[in-house]
Design a protein that fits this description.
mainly alpha; 4 helices; about 80% helix
Length: about 150
Amino acid sequence: MIRLRVLAPKEELEYLKEVHGEDRSKLFSVLIGHFEVLQNRAQMLLSLIAICLTITGFSGPQIAQSGPAARTLLAIGLSFVLGAALILVMGPLQLRWGTQRRADTVDNSLVALIERRNTRTRKYHVASVVLVIGLAGYMGSLLTYMLGL
């Protein structure tokens, strides 16, 4: 089995040059495409958050009135869901143009774009985990309500 290793940003740029050649505009386009994928996935999570909050607006009060366990789980779940939304808005969904800033060389600018992409990807993963925890709390409150616990 061939093992793949995680590349540092400078190594990744060199690898992209091997794959795509020295055409800097092509390399820039590839990296901008990565941001588009990240933006689309973050928007998908934000849509899931919006659905969760909308459903809670309708059924939340009734679930909360069913007892302290359901109320606590609902509050915890919603807190994590809102936390995930905040992480997404402050991370992957931040609007920054690829040409807005540059380093001293084009290669260093491309490395900086890779670093920014990696940071936003980490925030996306954190937001995903926080959202799953929030949804688990929300589902726990719903189960508590439905089972009458």
